Amino acid sequence: MSVSAGAVSHERLCAWAYLSAVVEPPAPASYGFVAVHGAEIAADRIRSGNVPGAVVNETAARREHVCGAELLERAHRSGIRLVTPEHGEWPGSRSAFLEGATEVGLSGLAAPMALWCRGNVSPEAVSRSAVAVVGARAATGYGESCAAELGYELARSGTTVVSGAAYGIDGAAHRGALAAGGATAAILACGPELDYPAGHARLIARIAENGLVCSEYPPGTPPRKHRFLVRNRLIAAVTDGTVVVEAGLRSGAGNTATTTDTLGLPVMAVPGPVTSANSSGCHELIRSGKAVLVTGAPDVLELVSDIGTARAPEREPTPRPTDELDEVSKRVHDSLSPTRRRTVEQLVHETGITRKSVVTCLSALEISGFVRCDDRGWTRCDQ
Amino acid sequence: MSVSAGAVSHERLCAWAYLSAVVEPPAPASYGFVAVHGAEIAADRIRSGNVPGAVVNETAARREHVCGAELLERAHRSGIRLVTPEHGEWPGSRSAFLEGATEVGLSGLAAPMALWCRGNVSPEAVSRSAVAVVGARAATGYGESCAAELGYELARSGTTVVSGAAYGIDGAAHRGALAAGGATAAILACGPELDYPAGHARLIARIAENGLVCSEYPPGTPPRKHRFLVRNRLIAAVTDGTVVVEAGLRSGAGNTATTTDTLGLPVMAVPGPVTSANSSGCHELIRSGKAVLVTGAPDVLELVSDIGTARAPEREPTPRPTDELDEVSKRVHDSLSPTRRRTVEQLVHETGITRKSVVTCLSALEISGFVRCDDRGWTRCDQ
């Protein structure tokens, strides 16, 4: 499908709107049909039923009932624009992930026909540097605080935080990114004007004001269980990797993680208390090797960056002054007390080190200020 | 070094006691010297200084000051027996791990000369099926509860819980095993009669009554920092694997984990909140691939068992009745409400599935009791 930056005619946009609504995604056969024939011819032929059997199966149910112009009008009233593969805004390189997956026979991962968008940021800009942060709706306080912290730190580093606007982890990740004044994008499983879930209407509005709210479902499409799973493939494909913050053993986040892995992108998971059922999905992903354990944004950025561009800071413990001592000197130092004096003979017996070595060690330790002696014996200087 | 089950003469036991006290472990040269010449000849030659240079370095400091008979007498008064490589009680196959490590040049991992033991269980019996549970002294309530639970469940499964009797994770693991009425063993970094730390005197006595308290250090040896690190190699070598429950970035538990890994045995770590510094060592072990994430005893038993003898129960989420439905039937089921009736035409448009398929699905779903219909339309039966 050719990508050009120019404007798309109203007729052609109507054809794209029709195509986006006539199918229930994923629709691999129709997607391929449009790629071959172009939007307008494909729309005409689908409307008249003059299409191959696989396309009939994906389009027969709605072909006579959808009107592209009406959908565009409705979208326009809600401040929603339609972004198609012909727009410069299209996340072409990321949508290619899904095209590749479809070509190897993963038809459930077909690319979206088009994207209905709210907000000034383009899907293409979002996809340039983005991380998905996903997880349980019924999250714990611990999970929400991890998600908010991750959202904040990722956004602060210039990474777009992509999630699904759900309660729990999704909402906390979006809020963290907004708090950092950074970019965040919500991909919905219903029409982008629907503010689902209702309790997140204000949050979704803020995301649209500062980033992007988008959906492959046209205005008016209600959320349905299977649409969340279908939507999850877009969250995985548009980002450079997926972080699961909290998830039970059976979860939508686990589904996003599987898709991320199928697409060859890094899957990450945040650990938590082993006593928390909300972390059991994360632990299973890590234990089975499907996800890499991450404890914060530096770990995530290291994994999603090209090699060498971002390295998590080394987790070096604080050095101690005695670190530089050799094993024998450490043993002598160790056998001294800060208060009770010890003779060389006592140290020889205590350490099991020869008299000559003990004397040599003590001299070197005294010069470095680790030990001191007076006429009654040796003591340790605590530093 | 030959292993026989018979009694060892008092003279020879005195030689072993002398050898165990004359060196500061690890003492690879002396260990090798004893293996070649036998305990009595080796002891005589060490006492007179008639030994190779490497053995001189390990023995010159104490060779004139140690008396094996006195040590045995002192041990006897404290209810401590000396177990040597000549006893049937010797954990021969496990001590071989350390001999192997020494042979490949890891002289810091030399096998112990002998073991001073309190309690009726033999080191050999301990080593038959044992897991090390180790971690921070300044543990959190979360860590202690994980360690106690692990200790309890491992002991209940017939596995000996081995640790170092320290405050925090060690103590909790021993207590868990004792609570299960199972076997537990403490390996100390000081003379085995010393009840270190003092606050664990009662716990150590209970371990000795129900299991084993042992040390390579003869009675009277005080604990020293380096002795804890040296002791840790025995905890690693005598067990089938090491679980780190809580550890900071710099910890003795991390040292035990490294030794376990060097010996080719499984290293496991329990995750925790990413906000807890006490879990950061565990997370780093998992993240770097040095340890496998474990959430409880079933995970541990699966990893330390011979393949196939113990499998962690599958973490299968609870199945739902709709799991058996195909994707198309799920989509139809999903679009129905338990209360509001829908017509076939509404379902066709809502799902994007052809009329023929919708009707076929509805019939099958009705027979299975998933949906019902009356003259006004179709509803979902919630199960």
Structure description:
The structure is a homodimer of 383-residue chains. Chain A has 383 residues and is of the alpha/beta class. Among the domains of chain A are: 114-304, Rossmann fold, CATH 3.40.50.450; 321-380, Arc Repressor Mutant, subunit A (Orthogonal Bundle), CATH 1.10.10.10. Chain A is 46% helix and 10% strand. Chain A contains 17 helices and eleven strands. Chain A has helices at 10-22, 28-37, 39-48, 53-59, 68-77, 92-103, 123-128, 141-156, 169-179, 201-210, 225-238, 252-262, 277-287, 297-304, 327-334, 344-351, 355-367; strands spanning 81-83, 115-118, 130-134, 160-163, 184-187, 212-215, 242-244, 267-269, 292-293, 371-374, 377-380. Chain A has a nine-stranded mixed β-sheet with strand order 1-2-6-5-4-3-7-8-9, sandwiched between helices. A two-stranded antiparallel sheet of chain A has the order 10-11. Chain A is elongated. The termini of chain A are far apart. Residues 1-5 of chain A have low confidence and may be disordered. At the A-B interface, helix 4, helix 8, helix 13, strand 9 and helix 15 of A face helix 4, helix 8, helix 13, strand 9 and helix 15 of B.
Q: Give the overall shape of chain A.
A: elongated
CATH architectural category of the domain at 114-304 in chain A: 3-Layer(aba) Sandwich
Oligomer: homodimer
Strand count, sense and closure of the main sheet of chain A?
9 strands, mixed
CATH topology category name of the domain at 114-304 in chain A: Rossmann fold
How many β strands of chain A by DSSP? 11
